[in-house]
Amino acid sequence: MRIALLTSLVLMQSSAFADWLQFRGTDTTAVADSPALRNVENDEALKWTADLKGRGLSAPIVIGDRVVVTTCSGLSQERLGVACYSTVDGSQLWNREMWATGRTVGHDKTCNAAPTSASDGEAIYSFYSSGDVSAYDLDGHLLWYRGLGSEFPNASNSLGMSSSLVVVDGTLVCMLESDADSITFGLATETGKTKWQLERPRLANWTSPSLLNGQDGPLVILQSGKGVTAVNPDDGSIAWTWANGASTIPTLTVTGADTLAVPSNGLTVLKPSADEVESLWNSGKLSPATASPVAVGDLVFTLNRAGVVTAASLADGEKIWQLRLKGSFSATPVAAGNRLYAVNEDGLLQVVEWTLDGGEVVSSRDLGDTVLGTPAISNGALYIRSDKHLWKLAE
Amino acid sequence: MNCRIATALLCVGCLMGTAELSADSNDLAGQIQVLTGVEPGAESHAAAKAAVKQIEQAGPQALVPLAKAIGQGNALADNWLRGTFESIAADGIDDVQSDLVAFFHDRSNAPRARRLVYETLVDATPEMKEQLLSSAIDDPSEEMRADAVNVLVDSVENESDEEVKRKVLERALANATVKSQVDAISKQVESLGGDFDPMSHYGFLKEWNVVGPFDNKDEKGFDVPYGPEKDDLSAPDLSVTFEGTEGESTWTALNADDKTGVIDLAEQIAPHKGALVYATTTFESDRERPVEIRLSTANAWKMWLNGQPMFEREEYHRGMQWDQYRVPATLAKGPNVIVLKVLQNEQDQSWAQRWSYSVRITDPTGRGVGKVAKR
Prior knowledge:
Distance between the termini of chain A: 28 Å
Strand order of the largest sheet of chain B: 4-1-6-11-8-9
Largest sheet of chain A: 4 strands, antiparallel
Radius of gyration of chain A: 19 Å
Structural class of chain A: mainly beta
Strand order of the largest sheet of chain A: 1-32-31-30
Oligomer: heterodimer
Structural class of chain B: alpha+beta
Distance between the termini of chain B: 88 Å
């Protein structure tokens, strides 16, 4: 129900359940609608590898038979790329670049092409740490371009920014939240014009917006160090606020029951309603590190600094099982069926299959490259990127 | 047909044809002008979107006019022009390749436009790269120079004559502005007995006068004008004494580190917390000229140039990066007074103790400008 409602608002022309249209998927939950491969170790599992230019942490998005990533290159990461590849054979369909108009500096680990693009099925919207926003049609024709970083030069972060885009109902949500100027924008997808802008807490923020079914339509959920705010995407009006603080790196996830699993004092699950935002439970023992939590069915999964996956009950936060994975993780795991796909920073992809009794790694594959970006799943295939490569794995 | 009438009809036909050609080229120019005129705020986006579609219909004939328009508007407009250029060029450039080559060789065209054209030509015909790069060592485009510097350095990789090698590397170094290139080449030059002065190469400002500390407890000092900020910031009186948080404070001469260009306030004054200082220097320019003032600091700051506020940033301890802030400015001919306000907060983490800055002045293409500043 949740998935159908949200995807109907995001999509225009694409097949509804195969696409992966924004960070953590079309509905921003990191859960695919159909199963994906179990065995990633076979030679046959790797369908193709495409070479990428420069650097990029952004997740791939998939629109029909196109998979898109952003890149940054040049002497100071001022070249902002959008690259489109065929899902069938990995051939490059088109590649476009812009010049950054905002600040391109950042921590060595991140880069200007950290935020993930978003699509409504007709256009591809891309965003960068420098605050530049571009819109191309599916064939690479420029629709519009906006330099939010040059319009608001103090809405920037010397460590870099990474909040991804979300598109819903004709509105593109761009977070430029920092210690100095801190603003979240709702831009009209048709022209890039500002529909609304919100003054936000003056605090560096690397989280991304999420989508939630509200009483009267979809809500965009914004997380910051101060807490969680629900915003009407059409006009930017605030539906509700929960001000008990939250993390500024891993992003909350929306569950199948329309509750929110928020990285706050460990993990806190909220249930918003018309009159209040109720805190259902909190557990200090569930501490997502960089990777965001993922909720599937009755379970919520967190990945901590030690690489331990914890599965807990969404009803009360009780730990059900834990599994230590290899390595450190920046990428958020993605889920399909009863499998989690987690790729560590060394590029080791680990497939965790679970039951309510426990989880185990059923296959793994060394991609041989540093991977910091979250994968995408579409039509049973995994798309994973590093700075230099984009891979497709499928049965 | 009557000859006179036929002639008249022919002339009318010619005029109509001429008028249509003029209308077409005017139309293309007009549509490109729409893109050149894009302003911040997206009010012009609807017209710009329509212009993109019109220009695309002109095909490859629009490429050189589009490239020529880059640099005539603002940076936003440049991206609209670039996006349109790329989508047209993706369908092939054979018809206009020679025109694009001519555009590239004309250094009066905007550096980034020439670079775009260069990349487009090389994408279509990779063999052109060597020829186009052969004369780029002193190119106005920093990217072109960087590529040409690499070619020059590679050319002497196996050179056994050290004198020859050093001279070639010195030529490469003189034209290098990318820090990683400069670091690598200067090391080689120095190993071959040559000299390298990072201060003058990068355009670091070395000699400063600093006064303070003043109060910045609870980060409240950012917008509070203390001492010098209450006086004439275009010409701070270095003989004046101010009352600071540590009693009377006079302007004190400090020099930046010769290798890094950094003024380390915590080291050279004291590691005050919840404090701020003002720092000033004067840069003598031989002419009025556009520059970038490039500042690096992990602290909050404000900058004035000749008494005018240039930029300010209230951010603490998010790292100190090379060319962290690039402030476009126009230097006057003669003395130019720069004043900085540099603020330290009270964070106690070990990584939040830095209180320092460096400032360098470059031309818009990244070359360090002139001699080091005088106090």
